[in-house]
């Protein structure tokens, strides 16, 4: 894991310069720039208090990417515990993309806005042998929890799992918190769980919300057992209410996908993002099942 002392300066900003490049009849100055770099905390760490500079080289460039294992997201940079990271720090540093590995939770209410993307992906597989147990496979499903109202907004949001399903969605302690994700496009791939700390999940996409199945773990991680029949399966599991607002919601080609609420009074609601009729997606042979006490 990584630790940055208070005041540590980490410069991963993009660069900008002008070069003389050949044009018809001679040379002309041509501006050249790069995006911000990447800061990867693949084993977690503490970076609140550090002076991180991840802006793009110019206004046209993208900011950098922050990758972090099991981040605990707060609004302000007052919590310096392990894996704590603040929306204030991410935005001030100029990061355009935030990628969480394994899980994400909030410390109180959080409102994070990103210029490019938010991604939650499975944690890295350290020992392939752990995949032989159900608990080991369950640990690869990305989990979202919260201790307040956690809102993340970006042009693109992706929840990316390496497993098809989990043995139970009943994770975490029951609370009444909220998770809101807003984007132009949202992708959900494989098995993803919003744990019992969240009883209100809102997924809002002005465009498509796409549901994609993944191959069996034996194929994804090449465990050697290739006799397992191939399939594309995924699922979104919540433990309370789920409200989906999008231009359209659909499983991608050949995917079998399930959206479920385990709550006895769980409600799953679908709403259109606008009155416009979107173009039909290039998707065929998909299967979507929705299970809840109430579906609207």
What would a concise description of this structure say?
This protein is mainly beta and 296 residues long. It contains 3 helices and 29 strands.
Report on the architecture of this protein.
The chain is 5% helix and 46% strand. The protein is mainly beta and 296 residues long. Strands 5-8-11-14-17-19-22-25 form an eight-stranded parallel beta sheet, with no helix packed on it. An eight-stranded parallel beta sheet has the order 10-9-12-15-20-23-26-28. The protein has a seven-stranded parallel beta sheet with strand order 13-16-18-21-24-27-29. A hairpin with a 2-residue loop joins strand 3 (16-23) and strand 4. The longest helix is centred in the N-terminal third of the chain and has 7 residues, at 87-93. The protein is globular and about 65 Å long.
């Amino acid at each position: 894991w990584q630790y940055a002392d208070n005041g540590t300066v980490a410069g991963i900003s993009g660069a900008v310069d002008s070069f003389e490049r050949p044009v018809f009849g001679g040379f002309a100055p041509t501006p050249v720039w790069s995006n911000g770099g990447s800061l990867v905390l693949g084993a977690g760490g503490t970076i609140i208090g550090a002076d991180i500079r991840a802006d793009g080289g110019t206004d046209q460039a993208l900011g950098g990417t922050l990758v972090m294992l099991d981040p605990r997201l707060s609004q302000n940079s007052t919590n310096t515990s392990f894996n704590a990271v603040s929306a204030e720090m991410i935005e001030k540093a100029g990061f355009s993309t935030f990628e969480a590995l394994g899980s994400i939770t909030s410390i109180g209410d959080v409102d994070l806005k990103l210029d490019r993307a938010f991604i939650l992906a499975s944690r890295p597989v350290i020992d392939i042998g752990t995949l032989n147990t159900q608990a080991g496979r369950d640990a690869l499903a990305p989990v979202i929890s919260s201790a307040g109202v956690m809102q993340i907004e970006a042009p693109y949001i992706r929840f990316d799992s390496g497993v098809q399903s989990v043995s139970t969605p009943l994770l975490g302690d029951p609370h009444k918190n909220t998770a809101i994700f807003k984007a132009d496009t949202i992708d959900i791939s494989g098995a993803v769980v919003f744990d019992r700390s969240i009883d209100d999940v809102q997924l809002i996409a002005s465009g498509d919300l796409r549901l994609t199945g993944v191959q069996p773990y034996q194929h994804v991680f090449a465990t050697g057992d290739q006799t397992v029949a191939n399939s594309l399966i995924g699922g979104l599991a919540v433990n309370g209410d789920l409200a989906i607002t999008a231009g359209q919601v659909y499983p991608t080609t050949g995917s079998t996908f399930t959206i479920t609420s385990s709550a006895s009074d769980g409600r799953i609601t679908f709403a259109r993002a606008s009155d416009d009729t979107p173009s039909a997606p290039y998707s065929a042979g998909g299967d979507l099942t929705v299970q809840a006490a109430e579906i609207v």
